[in-house]
């Protein structure tokens, strides 16, 4: 699930910060108002501390599902990740996302077998 915490006004001192802010704004501009409401939370919101890595479906997660994004939104989201992480960090993050997709397929297949 996608989940952004907004800390309030951000002082921009470096090009990296400007790139991250611009890519985040571009991503949010690809979303409709309902998805923005489900994606952007105040930094002090209690949901900020409710992150989980349990299988999708076993625990409700705040935010919007990556799979619900349009192609334009997905591309913009990957630009945010690229601005946020080093190339190695981006690779690790996208690898974890792919692994979660595999685990979700396995989880669904086990669930379907039981029903």
In short:
56% of the residues lie in helices and 5% in strands.
Estimate percent helicity.
55-70%
Number of DSSP strands? 2
User: Main sheet?
Assistant: 2 strands, parallel
Low-confidence stretches: none
Q: Pairing-aware structural class of the strands and helices? A: mainly alpha
Q: Gap between N and C termini, in Å? A: 26 Å
Strand order of the largest sheet: 1-2
The H-and-E topology, N to C, reads as: EHHEHH
Q: Which overall shape is indicated by the principal axes computed on the Cα atoms?
A: globular
User: Which percent band covers the strand fraction?
Assistant: 5-15%
> How many domains make up the 3D coordinates?
1
What is the residue-averaged pLDDT? Answer: 83
Radius of gyration: 16 Å
Total helices: the number is 4
Description:
The protein has helices spanning 15-29, 33-39, 71-84, 87-114; strands at 4-6, 40-42. The protein has 115 residues and is mainly alpha-helical. It has a two-stranded parallel ribbon. Helix 1 (15-29) runs antiparallel to helix 3. It is globular and about 50 Å long.
Topology overview:
Layout: E1 4-6, H1 15-29, H2 33-39, E2 40-42, H3 71-84, H4 87-114
Parallel strand pairs: 1-2
Helix pairs in contact: 1-3
Give short descriptive properties of this protein.
two-stranded parallel sheet; single chain; 115 residues; 4 helices; mainly alpha
């Amino acid at each position: 699930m996608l989940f952004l915490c907004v800390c309030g006004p951000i002082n921009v001192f470096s090009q990296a910060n400007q790139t991250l802010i611009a890519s985040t704004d571009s991503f949010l501009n690809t979303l409709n108002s309902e998805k923005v409401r489900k994606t952007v939370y105040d930094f002090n919101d209690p949901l900020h501390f409710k992150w989980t890595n349990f299988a999708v479906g076993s625990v409700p997660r705040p935010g919007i599902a990556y799979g619900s994004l349009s192609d334009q939104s997905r591309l913009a989201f990957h630009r945010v990740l690229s601005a946020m992480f080093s190339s190695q960090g981006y690779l690790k993050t996208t690898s974890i996302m792919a692994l979660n997709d595999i685990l979700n397929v396995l989880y669904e297949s086990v669930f379907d077998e039981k029903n």
